[in-house]
Specification:
The protein is of the alpha+beta class. It has 18 helices and 15 strands. The protein is globular and about 80 Å long. The longest helix has 18 residues.
């Protein structure tokens, strides 16, 4: 998981400029074309030297303590996800030194690179046989770039007597869904919810969205509906208002002068947009064929229609403007009534433009099944570690470190710790949202996760991002044709990898 304000706004702006040339996207927060080495050479082979290489990246500063004679050195590698900000590195180095002071016989060495260089550098290290031991924090997508290289932790979990029932079942399954063993222990989770503006619902004469998962919704005529995306689409039109006060259900509504949008889906990644309708994977069970999960197709069509037909969601051009999207998340600008997003998106919800009358509700269902797209970080051990026992001791230490958990902005995966954490986080807010909705939403995480492995991982991401950009900037498309073309392009990339 990579958190960054304005992440997709930057990606969209870059791609809008480059799309006509059909070139690949680059961004400090998204996989760049250079990081394709990691995904397209999952065995860890070094990058090709056929063309001139840029100067090697500067590594992050290591911790200051030194190994003593006889110590087993364990290398902790960062940052395939978050963790590369200077203030984070300072804490990470201290954590390594604190470990060394309390664990004689093991020397923990912190090392790594900024996010944009970390995947390439790790690929080169693995290709030369000089890889590290422990890697993290790393999300699903970052880890899948190195599929097949992670140690099965189950024997070590059993030996240490770790009670995996203390974690929500969905988070445990997240790390064993690929059939390679238990590749991670749940650590920092980022559940998603539906954020909404209660004042906008009140002004429109609408009931607030349900906080109960798999709930129902009472329409203005008194009828009761399932809380699903069909219901959301209908009330989103009522909540979409132009500058003259007409909503999107009225004939007088002017879609060129919208003042308030009814619904904004999470749009960083089309896979993610699809995952809110249902868990799925691009890679079929045969391990080589591209597929488009039915819930994702439905989500993409509703996303496109929301922009160009219903006008309940922003166009790509609107999404890029600083007045409508100043922090990378339009809901924070106070002009969106409902938005699906992760709990980390609260970073901008105390801004004065948002207003204080916001809250959290359950994400809607699709065809009777509710799914809340899920982000999670943990630490992993590489199979190539020469000292797996000591690496697992380090792993347990890092997973138990509350300073790191707060540093990364995650919610504890251990259920018994979640209430205190969320109370601490939201207790400081002027608005007191119903954060228990987010806690309960962990049980509806998408498994398999939308970031699950595909061949040519970064190239696949580039293709998905290209189509997502096109759909947000081009009206009048046939989505069936577009989705078929995207599938064919992905398959061609896989066949060539």
């Amino acid at each position: 998981m990579r958190v960054g304000a304005g992440r997709f706004a930057v990606l969209l702006a870059v791609l809008a400029l480059l799309f006509a040339a059909c070139s690949q996207s680059t961004s400090s927060a998204a996989p760049s074309s250079s990081t394709a080495v990691a995904s397209e050479q999952p065995s860890g082979s070094a990058a090709s030297s056929e063309s001139a290489s840029p100067p090697p990246p500067t590594p992050l500063p290591a911790n200051e303590s030194q190994a003593k004679p006889g110590d087993v050195t364990i290398r902790w590698y960062c940052c395939l996800g978050t963790g590369d900000a200077p203030e984070q590195v300072q804490v990470e180095r201290k954590v390594a030194d604190d470990f060394n002071a309390s664990h004689p016989g093991i020397h923990l060495q912190f090392e790594g690179y900024v996010y944009a260089a970390a995947a390439d550098a790790l690929s080169v290290q693995l290709g030369s046989g000089s890889g590290p031991d422990v890697v993290g924090p790393v999300g699903v997508g970052g880890a899948e770039r190195f599929k097949g290289q992670w140690l099965d932790l189950q024997p070590y979990i059993d030996k240490a007597g770790i009670d995996m029932s203390q974690y929500p079942e969905s988070t445990v399954k997240l790390y064993n869904a690929g059939g390679e063993g238990q590749l991670g222990i749940p650590y920092a989770v980022y559940p998603s919810v539906l954020f909404y503006k209660a004042d906008m619902f009140k002004e429109a004469g609408l009931k607030e969205p349900p906080h109960q998962w798999n709930g129902t919704y009472t329409m203005p005529d008194g009828s009761t509906r399932p809380w699903d995306y069909d219901t959301v689409r209908e009330i989103a039109k009522i909540l979409t208002v132009d500058q003259n006060g007409h909503d999107a259900t009225e004939a007088e509504f002017d879609p060129t002068k919208i003042a308030q949008w009814g619904f904004e889906p999470q749009r960083d990644d089309l896979r993610q947009t699809g995952a809110y309708f249902g868990a799925g994977a691009l890679l079929a069970s045969d391990g080589k064929t591209a597929q488009m999960p039915d819930p994702w197709v439905a989500a993409w069509k509703q996303f496109y229609e929301g922009i160009w037909t219903d006008h309940t969601s922003m166009t790509g051009a609107q999404f890029q403007t600083t007045d409508l999207n100043p922090a990378g998340y339009p809901f924070c600008a106070g002009k969106v009534a409902m938005s699906t997003n992760y709990l980390w998106s609260t970073y901008c919800l105390e801004d004065k433009t948002t207003g204080t009358d916001w809250n959290m509700a359950a994400t809607p269902a699709y065809k009777g099944k509710t799914t809340a797209a899920f982000n999670a970080d943990t630490f992993r051990i590489l199979k190539t570690s020469k000292n797996p026992d000591q690496s697992f001791e380090v792993l347990q230490y890092l997973l138990a470190n509350n300073d790191l958990l707060e540093l990364y902005g995650g919610t504890p995966a251990i259920e018994s710790q979640q209430d205190a954490h969320l109370e601490k986080v939201f207790g400081a807010y002027s608005q007191k949202p119903d954060w228990k909705v987010a806690k309960e939403g962990i049980n509806f995480a998408d498994v398999p996760n939308f970031e699950s492995y595909t061949p040519a991982y970064n190239k696949t991401f580039d293709i998905i991002l290209k189509y997502g950009t096109k759909w947000q900037t081009t009206p009048g498309l046939n989505l069936d044709t577009e989705i078929s073309a995207m599938k064919d392009e992905i398959q061609a990339a896989w066949d060539a990898s």
